[in-house]
Specification:
The structure is a homotetramer. By secondary structure, the first copy, chain A, is α/β, with parallel strands linked by helices. Chain A has helices at about 15-20, 35-45, 55-60, 75-85, 100-115, 125-135, 165-180, 285-300, 305-325; strands spanning about 1-5, 25-30, 50, 65-70, 90-95, 115-120, 145-155, 185-190, 200-205, 210-220, 220-230, 235-240, 250-260, 265-275, 330. In chain A, about 35% of the residues lie in helices and about 30% in strands. In chain A, the strands form two sheets. Chain A has a nine-stranded mixed β-sheet with strand order 14-13-12-11-7-10-9-8-15. A six-stranded parallel β-sheet of chain A has the order 3-2-1-4-5-6, with helices on both faces.
């Protein structure tokens, strides 16, 4: 039985508490939030859990083996560091930290203390992403050409970060999970219209080879879109996360170039075959992730979404942020 | 009755011939194509029209008042120039020319000779674009924030130009028609996978002020998408050109920033109201455009999609092309 | 503060408990279910609520003012009757009873005892149905021509009733709520394929005048459909309950017949104008309904979805059931 | 080279002329229509074809081997009969005739004279229907449970027939083509709102065994729907004819009943697997049908969509018409 302390009971915290609470081999011992209203909500929903506004209560508690940090990103580093220093494993909300340097320090600390770090890249635990990974691993798609994601809707405006730090961690962590090629450089364009933070951004990631990724994030769209196209030499995928069923569609479509008669004569031929929507597991991704965290802590094994995975995403976020500030100047990774 | 000569009877030429042919005040006198197969098709479809492979026949003919140039882009300049020099008005397929310099020469020549030049930006004559223009003119959308277009599908690969020259002229001409702000600089990223031409590209256009545009064009997408989001301070538009009806949807949605209590305290509030799909004219755009060309020639009035409009699009295409070759370096307009 | 007892903690019961539990002026005192597993689940989810398998505990309790009956339909009559006889107001799951006779008895008993009866026609509390009712009340649609609902999906097979008793109560209660005309006769066709209950049915309801309704219910559909078309002389509505936003679309479309030149010469003209998707409240319908029940009990006012409304639906269900058994013979209401 | 005469150049006639005109082994010799405006249109579109208003010109012409009857249904019998009597093969627009008796006479006459009769059930030549037939023939769907079609839109009101005669021939001919079971009885309900003809109808067809079909046709729908669900023991199909690609989707979904422990204890289990959209040929169905007609005439072979197939559809139309007039009384076939 792993004792869990959760710091932060705002928008996402209740989901983290509920899921750890529902597991057989975990026990949420303490929830910590400074806001009286949040404390009240936590108490009401989980009468059997201690609620406090004193984070040291939680960091010091011998009942607590692991700490979930579900607070604004600029607080992640200090809280996770304190938890690790107190011998607690940590589960940190995405994005992992505000800077790559912070992430590196935490990774090092975790390693030194032999403690697990897991970054909450929830999407990696969805049926859709797992299915796409299987398709790629089984070489169903062939060599990948591009990854093109659109993640737009109206709000939720963040008060402390721009749209890149808010929405792109999803795509960057999924990309990192699915694509074997190494990202090389980032160009981000975008604009701010309402306050001091960019509310829409267009991010291009160049990889080694000719793989390319593009991420369109926007807080000002009248409609919600969550669509990713993935093109490969053999097949192509459309993942529409807003579909109730049939989230992942695999198209037996492609283009081939063959040499024609003349030296410079290239013939382009199209292949257009069936479409196939594999059954995708309908699970609550966060529940699976919480269970996986407990398993990693229990068995002492390193999660795949560890601090290093979190670091890679933070590096790309920093690069994109630097690029957008410099009006789209290329930033190497 | 305006006599028309059409040069080029490949993919788009038959549509141009058919539409001019159907007008009461125009007469297609000659169609010219060098390919025997094209000549045969033209002869079969329009038994009453002379078909030739000799372009000078057409350029010299006293029966011909205006020439439509529906050939590959690299031939536009020479053909349009010859037509103007022979005193013919010209209707030129988009993109107008291969370089801004060529476009400028043609504009100057047309002006000197007092001949009409129309560039075939067909989309400007669709019910959808006309409706969006009306909404903007009536200030229904407020000040524009962004224009974000996705135009992707499988093929048709061009043999002589990249995906920017093939697909982006649509978006750039529509953008130029709808947006009053002046474009300032362009960044284009993208990649080639199959041959020497880029097959996907992501183009950002920075405007004066904080208006921004983005165009996603892709020859390697398994699905066809033709969707444009337009955000304004008052309302937002989604134009999905693949919808049979309801192509244009107007959302009474928005975001407002108001000052909060503290100096740096900004309050973001969302507005989410009705959606409205205005009736859009179901006309054949090209037919309306051909009629408009005949009217302009007859009445000696300057079309709004004239050589200068064509030049502006070519300038942006050149800038985008230069940028993509330089891996996304910003190119000023 | 109204004390509530809930009988039945299977599929729907937990929602009823959760919603009454969340209200300020209600208190769920007792939950009753005979199944140990259900009792355990209730205890876990609501540690502050008494759980029992003894229904008389609940019926006798002085702490309980009102009883919610959330059990299989064949048990509704006995349980609701016992509750009324013990002086409790009742909230009964749809369909109200197994027979019209039972419903009439309960209505009479409630009236005699001056107790409230509410039948849980949840859909009447959704934003979509409320909006359509507003449109009809404001005469936006004109005189109604037809109501055509499709409600199909895979499963959930019921073990004690056919697809009509399972799915049609939704449509029949909505129809009864929206349509002022009086239903006159019912024809139901359908078939059974897997067991002794019909798994798909097509129900036509003839009204006085030329209004007509049709309901397509099916447990064997590979896809889920929840779409209702409503046609009127002025406008027409499409309600797609599976859309996230824009559930209700109002079409300014119609047909008009005008006399032509000759005596028998009728001219049909179509009108096709804008489409409009009014904003629909995004509320939890059941919560609004529970609050309304508490209000009716507190204020002694008769709910619109009372026992009589429940009776009308049961009469139509019985008629449809009789018709389908007689291979589509018309059954008058 | 088969000489063709076409009678009727209204809505569908031009398509028939165009397609026969495009075939290598057919020659449209004469088009006949009494309306001067139609004659003018025909002359303009096909300058090489003789146009007449004298049907006997066409019936007597030795250049004409086969006659296409593309006129209102009430004229089919006389025209087709005259053509057969003059030794011409006939291609008749659907529905074949106004009565089963007429259809029987024509079938008999065609047989006696050894002439081909083809009824224009165009949908049977679409890629979608051919694909579904292949799936059924390959026993991919298992034994069929139901066929449920919705074919609704605004207009086109016919002046001489009701919505059943206008729209249901499509579904009935497809049904007859796909389903091996024998239809036994028909119940049709519906209503008229604007003139003397029913403008919406709901048709149930009972088959031998427990196969059942349902057809929803409506001239008063604000939206166009062309969707057919087909359920079988093994797999289920959704055919949406309005989809650009992916018209046919095959769902590996189903329900199974197995005996439980007790005698009356049936266990229902659901199967929910992948979805698969097989590639469907993108051909012009009418062109394929015209070619098939020419082949049948040339080779003297009996088409599968012959007079007898037309007769079966007319029988069902008559039964449905009789039923709807009798307010849904069952009519045996």
């Amino acid at each position: 039985m792993i004792g869990i302390g959760v710091i932060g009971y705002g928008y996402w915290g209740p989901n983290v508490v509920r899921n750890f609470h529902s597991l057989n081999d975990a026990r949420v011992a303490v929830v910590c939030d400074k806001r009286p209203e949040s404390m009240k909500r936590a108490k009401q929903a989980f009468p059997d859990v201690e609620v406090t506004d004193d984070v040291s209560r939680l960091l010091m508690s011998p009942d607590i083996d692991a700490v979930a940090v579900v607070t604004p990103v600029w607080t992640h580093f200090e809280l996770a560091k304190a938890a690790l220093e107190n011998g607690k494993h940590v589960f940190v909300e995405k994005p992992f930290t505000s800077t790559a340097e912070q992430a590196e320090q935490l990774v090092e600390l975790g390693s030194k203390k032999n403690l697990r770090i897991m970054v909450d890249h929830t999407f990696l635990f969805t049926g859709a992403v797992k299915k796409i990974r299987q398709l790629i691993d089984a070489d169903e798609l062939g060599k990948l050409y591009y990854y093109d994601s659109t993640r737009v809707n109206l709000g939720l405006f963040q008060h402390d970060v721009n749209v890149i730090w808010d929405l792109a961690p999803h795509d960057l962590s999924i990309m990192d999970y699915l694509i074997q090629d190494k990202p090389k450089a980032i160009i981000a364009t975008g604009e701010r219209h309402l306050n001091t933070y960019e509310d829409l951004a267009y991010i291009t990631v160049y990889f080694e080879g000719n793989m390319i990724a593009h991420i369109n994030v926007n807080w000002l769209s009248p409609v919600k879109v969550r669509t990713t196209l993935i093109g490969g030499t053999k097949k192509m995928v459309v993942w529409n996360d807003l579909e109730a069923d049939e989230k992942v569609k695999v198209y037996d479509k492609g283009v081939q170039i063959t040499a024609g008669q003349g030296v410079y004569d290239l013939l382009v031929s199209y292949r257009s075959g069936d479409m196939w929507a594999p059954k995708v597991d309908q699970i609550e991704a966060l529940r699976a992730e919480c269970q996986y965290f407990i398993d990693c802590v229990t068995d002492g094994k390193e999660p795949f979404n560890d601090g290093y995975a979190g670091l890679k995403v933070v590096k790309m976020l920093q690069a994109a942020d630097k690029s957008i500030k410099a009006k789209g100047r290329m930033v190497y990774l």
